[in-house]
Structures are given as C-alpha cells and as structure tokens.
Amino acid sequence: MGVKAEVLPLDTDCHHFVLENNWTNLEEPYGSIFLSIPTILDSSLAPEGRHILHIFTTSSMDDWKGLSRIEYEAKKQVVADEIISRLEKKLFPGLKSAIDFIEVGTPKTHRRYLARDEGTYGPMPRSIPKGLLGMPFNTTSIDGLYCVGDSCFPGQGVIAVAFSGVMCAHRVAADIGKPELSHSIAGNCLQVERLEKKSPVLDAMLLRLLGWFRTLA
Ligand SMILES: Cc1cc2nc3c(=O)[nH]c(=O)nc-3n(C[C@H](O)[C@H](O)[C@H](O)COP(=O)(O)OP(=O)(O)OC[C@H]3O[C@@H](n4cnc5c(N)ncnc54)[C@H](O)[C@@H]3O)c2cc1C
C-alpha cells in the first residue's frame, strides 16, 4: 500500500509482526500479519510525504478456489479491509483513511505472475525437505543450461538469490573459459578463479565432490 506519511508515528520501525491472540492463532490462516515499511530506511522509494507498506499473511489456494471474478475481487477487498482494521487497532490509528494506493495479491496471484506451484510463498519442496545442500546448484543435466534464483542453493530471500546469481555468473564464466569475466561480479571469487584457471581437472573434481555431498543431504 502507499499511505500518507503522517499516519506513521515518527519513531516507527521498519519491520512488524502482529499476532493478537496469545500465539493460538500463529499457524491459522490469516492469523499473523507481517509488515515491512521499506521507506523507513530509504525514503526515495516513494514520493515525498508517502510511505510504502508491504503487508502479508498466510492463506491457501483452497480458500480462493471456485469463485467468480466478482466474488474473487470482493473477497480480496474483505480480506484487505480486515487486515487494515487490525493494523489500525494495533499500530496505526487512521490507517484506512491515509491510503493513497492499494494492490492486493492472493495465492492465485503468486501462481499466475510468479509461476509458483499452488501459489506458495516460495519454493516449497514437494516432499520432505532435504536441507540446503539438497537444492539444485547452478548447473543442470543439460550442458550449457544453468539455473538461478530461490529454487536453487542457497534458497529463499533477496540476499540468497543475489548470491545464487553471483555463483551462477561465476560458473558460466569459468565454463566458457573466461574466468576473468567474474572479476567484475565479485572480488571474492578470485581464489576459486585462480584454481579453475590453473586446473580444469581439479574444478571438475570439485564439482563432482559437491554433487556427492548433495546425495548425502
Ligand atoms: C510475500 C513475500 C514476501 C517476501 N518477503 C521477503 C523479505 O522480506 N525479505 C527477503 O529477503 N525475501 C522475501 N521474500 C522472498 C523473495 O522475494 C524471493 O526469495 C525472491 O524474490 C526470489 O527471487 P527469484 O528471482 O528467484 O524469483 P522471483 O522474484 O519469483 O522471479 C521469478 C520471475 O520469473 C518470472 N517467470 C516465472 N515463470 C516464467 C516463465 N515461464 N516465463 C517467463 N518468466 C517467468 C516471474 O514472473 C518472476 O518475475 C518474500 C516473498 C514473498 C512472496
């Protein structure tokens, strides 16, 4: 949401977690609310005098199935209104009337625009999680096809995804025989680069060793 800045007290923190009901609602759908206000840290993200509120809660695809377009839009409004009034009570009185812009997403939105299976929050494993090492690294069984992002090691979150990108760029640079390309990507790749430049055999062995570690995960 985009809101007028005056609705937030001056000492408002960036991150909030709202759980009104003594933990009993923690894992219930819509039970807890996660709120981040990035403009507290970087005011240039919004027009002057405005803040961005990024709010989310838990829900499942089942709760949004079988609705007509009109019912779907109406339900989005009901859920959003409920969350806003909870935030008004707990944190920011007058929030509703301070809203300039609002966009509501659901598990269906995640499925449609992010291609997330069942509209999940992130890359949920289909079976029992194998831990981080069980996730794909950047290479695939198809030569020259790489993968990157939060479905790969080291997983979910903006920082992890950025790291996955650096790792992948380095892998590609090494594979096409231009390790110097990754100089511009990250200085800390230097040691690995030297190793690869010196010894493609050792590099291939390292990859195989990593693959073996992953079978243990
Ligand atoms: C509600 C929510 C809150 C979050 N909060 C945080 C947070 O506070 N901090 C944090 O660090 N992380 C947070 N995350 C996690 C973080 O946003 C993700 O881990 C990260 O954005 C994943 O990046 P990605 O590039 O792997 O995938 P995405 O950001 O999902 O990008 C994948 C892109 O590929 C496109 N795509 C999919 N299929 C196709 C196709 N067939 N053809 C073309 N394009 C396609 C999608 O449209 C999308 O743009 C949050 C995630 C969610 C859903």
From TrEMBL:
Alphabetical keyword list: Isomerase
PANTHER family: PROLYCOPENE ISOMERASE, CHLOROPLASTIC, PTHR46313
SUPFAM superfamilies: FAD/NAD(P)-binding domain
UniProt-recorded name of the protein: Prolycopene isomerase chloroplastic-like
InterPro entries: CrtISO-like (IPR045892), FAD/NAD-bd_sf (IPR036188)
Protein's UniProt keywords contain Transferase: no
A molecular-function term among this protein's GO annotations: isomerase activity
UniProt superkingdom: Eukaryota
Annotated organism of origin: Trifolium medium
Gene Ontology terms describing biological process: carotenoid metabolic process
